[in-house]
Amino acid sequence: MPVGFVSVIVPCFDGLPDLDVQLAALAAQNYHGEFEVIISDNGSTDGLREHLEQLESPLDLRWIDSSDVRGTPHARNAGIEAARGDFLVFTDQDDAVYPNWLTALARAAETYDAVGGPIEVRTLNSPEVATWRVVPAPDDRFETTYLPYAHGNNFGMWRHVVDRVGTFDESFLGGGEDADISWRIQEAGLSLGHTPDALVAYRLRTTVRAAFHQGVGYGRSAWEVTHKHEQNGARQPHLREMGLFAYGLALRNPWLPKRLSPLPKGMWAMSMGTVYGSLSPRMRHALTNFRLSRRAQGQ
């Protein structure tokens, strides 16, 4: 089905000045159709609304208030509710879409119910920080042990998909809402495509501490998303697998001599955070089940 009017939804929380980089990238799109850009303000304190009102931009730009519920999923859902287009596209405040991004997504949407694209980490990050994240090649999708998913900053879906599977799950506050909705789309029998030409420059965390905390969020959300979809075939990694992974990280910590091939500091910190983040909810879940079991035995 040909794509007509497109709604680009950008969740935003204290996103200045990075948001201006993204808006300039959106203004430079070579898309020949019409599109709007919805800035979904999730409680910014940096004067975002006033900044947008004074901004001279060729974009069809709208600010909406999504501060009633905190979190990126809610900001995206508020954007969906406000959108005028039938094709809904999502990107993030601190990234930068390539000029062909929207054209590529719209072209792929003629074939698929939903579609994602690749990310790259070279453009918006220093050479050192760019080594902290390994991302798939543009031709490759984001794979998991269950189903592939579309990255939340590079994702589009038709409105009929929302009607069929619902909006983003607002319980996922540390990430994972993109994997969840991608999996729900495929579980419902709808198609999730991937187009290598829809490229987004991805901005990484710039400190080791921030990389660790992001990893904790990723690990926690990975457990939560997998737990939600276990009845459909998703599988949590075994503790033995996680133990071996953590042991491998210990052997490649950044303080080892270079001849031993240590990992870059930020990559190591995020990976350790991911292990910690995924273990914490698992332990809480196991403890809850143990207590319920003891209580049942006592009865």
Explain what this protein looks like in three dimensions.
- With 299 residues, this protein is α/β, with parallel strands linked by helices.
- The chain contains 10 helices and 10 strands.
- The strands form 2 sheets. A 7-stranded mixed beta sheet has the order 3-2-1-4-8-6-9. Strands 5-10-7 form a 3-stranded mixed beta sheet.
- The longest helix has 34 residues, at 265-298.
- The radius of gyration is 20 Å and the shape is globular.
- The N and C termini lie far apart (60 Å).
Portion of residues within helices = 40-55%
Largest sheet: 7 strands, mixed
Quick check: average pLDDT? Answer: 92
Q: Any low-confidence stretches, pLDDT <50, length ≥5?
A: none
Spatial strand arrangement across the major sheet: 3-2-1-4-8-6-9
Work out the helix count: 10
Q: Cα distance, first to last residue? A: 60 Å
Secondary structure class reads alpha/beta
- Quick one: how many beta strands? 10
Strand content: 5-15%
Helix-strand pattern: EHEHEHEEHEEHEHHEEHHH
Tell me which oligomeric state these chains represent: single chain
**Radius of gyration of CA atoms, rounded to a whole number:** 20 Å
Rough outline: globular
Quick overview of this protein structure:
With 299 residues, this protein is α/β, with parallel strands linked by helices. It has ten helices and ten strands.
Q: What key attributes describe this structure?
A:
alpha/beta, 3-stranded mixed sheet, 7-stranded mixed sheet, 299 residues
Secondary structure: elements and pairs:
Layout: E1 6-12, H1 18-27, E2 35-41, H2 48-54, E3 60-65, H3 72-82, E4 87-90, E5 96-97, H4 101-109, E6 114-116, E7 119-120, H5 127-130, E8 155-158, H6 159-165, H7 177-187, E9 192-194, E10 200-201, H8 208-228, H9 239-251, H10 265-298
